[in-house]
Each structure stands twice: as structure tokens, then as C-alpha cells.
Design a protein that fits this description.
Distance between the termini: 66 Å
Strand order of the largest sheet: 3-2-1-4-5-6-7
Largest sheet: 7 strands, parallel
CATH architecture: 3-Layer(aba) Sandwich
Oligomer: single chain
Length: 262
């Protein structure tokens, strides 16, 4: 018999993915937690199961590998796990001169943030359509709204994800499947801590919990594009005023890394 009510969270072992897992568990939502770190996943799954009385299934998988999404979807089918909510959160991006970055790692970034997302959506959304109920949250970035030199592949993958996600929303919303395209700005990490004097985050920076709360509210409301935070909305609007042909040059001047002059 198929078990009901699972949310699949990729990149669930830390950061934003873990915050999604905790928030969903608090909603009494059964979980499939996916990341590379098996130990961290098992500890998180046990904690959430014990605390909230839910089913939390850890699956260790490197989603940056070729056809990893197809393999994961088949595992879920074999285990009779029904996914009602798909959260595509896993991702990474390198900074630096594109031609000097390791090509294999850049291709992994494309597979993780584009290929795997497409595979999971293609396999897991049709059953949602049949049930006339389901949700998808695709975690993109403000970086996807503009070309960013020295984060060339990362910004490109996020741009693909935004366009894919918004187009998908238009196709499946009529069947009761809601799609959220969330574009966060700077997130609070170990490198971005509270200001010691004001006890506030740097301007435009948000916590993982704030992003998750806004994303789940958007999903409950029927989906759509979400740019969390007033500052981030302003940045997204402002970049539209710069001609597309000049935008990369403007951004490049601000993001160019320091290097020795030859």
C-alpha cells in the first residue's frame, strides 16, 4: 500500500534544506531527506521523527551525478513512497574566472541545479497531476535574474531554473499542482553573522527560517514567483533599468576578483 503525504527535500542535511525539513516536520509532514551526507541525514531524520511523530526517510545520494534524479525517483517508486511536495533546494556555485575553474565541477553544478531538477519534476509531478494535488518549490536565486561574471555558471543555472519553474507553473497550476519559484538574496551563514552592535543582519540578508516561512506561505497561497525581502525586491527592480547588453559589465565591475596584473 502506498504511504501518503511525503515531502522530498534535496540538500536536506544543512542550511536552507534543513530549515525546510524542520518547518515541514512541525507541520506534521512526512519527509524524504536527500543529501550526500548519510550520517547527518540519519541524525536529522531521527530527531524529526522523535520530536514530531512523523516518518522521516533519509536517502544518501549525490544529485550532481548523471541521471541521479532518475535513480532517486526510481528508489521512491520501489519503496512505494508518494511525494506530494517536491523541494528542489540542493545547489552550489563557485566564484572565479570561468576559464580557470575546474570544468568537471562546473558541469556538476549544471547537473545538480538543472538536469536533476528536470528529472525529478518529470517523474514526480505527473502523479500529482493525477491526484489533482501537489506542490513544487524550486530554490533559485537573485543571481538568476542577471548575468554575473565570475559566478558565470552559477548565475546561468539559476536563470535556467527561474524560467523552467515559471513555465512549469503555467502548465500545471490548472491541475491543482502549485509551483513556487523562490529567489533569495544573501542568506545568513557562518560567514554572514549578526552585527555585534545592532544585533541585526546586514542589509538585505535573511535567515534560512525567513526564506522557508515565506516559501511555504507562497505555496499555500497557490504558488508563483517569490523574491523575499524589501531590499531584494528593490534590487530586482533596479537591475531591470539597466540595458541587458550592459548589465554584465556593470555587475562584473562589482564582482571582479582581485588578481595580480601580468
Amino acid at each position: 500500500m502506498t504511504e501518503q503525504g511525503y515531502a522530498l527535500v534535496t540538500g536536506a542535511s544543512r542550511g536552507l534544506g534543513q530549515a525546510f525539513a524542520r518547518a515541514l516536520a512541525a507541520r506534521k509532514q512526512n519527509l524524504v531527506l536527500v543529501a550526500r551526507s548519510e550520517g547527518n541525514l540519519q541524525r536529522l531524520a531521527k530527531e524529526l521523527s522523535d520530536t514530531h511523530g512523523i516518518q522521516a526517510r533519509p536517502i544518501a545520494s549525490d544529485l550532481a551525478q548523471h541521471e541521479a534524479g532518475l535513480s532517486l525517483a526510481q528508489q521512491l517508486l520501489d519503496r512505494a513512497i508518494q511525494v506530494d511536495v517536491l523541494i528542489n533546494n540542493a545547489g552550489f556555485g563557485d566564484q572565479g574566472w570561468f576559464l580557470e575553474l575546474e570544468l568537471a565541477r562546473q558541469l556538476q553544478s549544471i547537473r545538480l541545479q538543472n538536469e536533476t531538477v528536470v528529472e525529478l519534476v518529470h517523474k514526480l509531478v505527473p502523479p500529482m497531476i493525477e491526484r489533482r494535488h501537489g506542490g513544487v518549490i524550486n530554490v533559485s536565486s537573485l543571481a538568476g535574474l542577471q548575468p554575473i561574471p565570475y559566478a558565470t555558471v552559477y548565475s546561468a543555472t539559476k536563470a535556467f531554473l527561474i524560467n523552467f519553474s515559471l513555465a512549469l507553473e503555467s502548465e500545471v497550476n490548472r491541475y491543482g499542482v502549485h509551483v513556487v519559484t523562490v529567489c533569495p538574496g544573501r542568506l545568513r551563514t557562518k560567514e554572514v553573522e549578526l552585527n555585534a552592535e545592532t544585533k541585526r543582519l546586514p542589509c538585505g540578508t535573511q535567515t534560512y527560517e525567513e526564506i522557508v516561512e515565506a516559501s511555504l506561505r507562497k505555496l499555500d497561497a497557490g504558488g508563483g514567483l517569490l523574491i523575499p525581502g524589501v531590499v531584494n525586491k528593490l534590487l530586482a527592480f533596479t537591475q531591470r533599468l539597466i540595458p541587458r547588453s550592459q548589465l554584465a559589465r556593470v555587475v562584473g565591475k562589482m564582482s571582479k576578483p582581485k588578481r595580480d596584473v601580468q
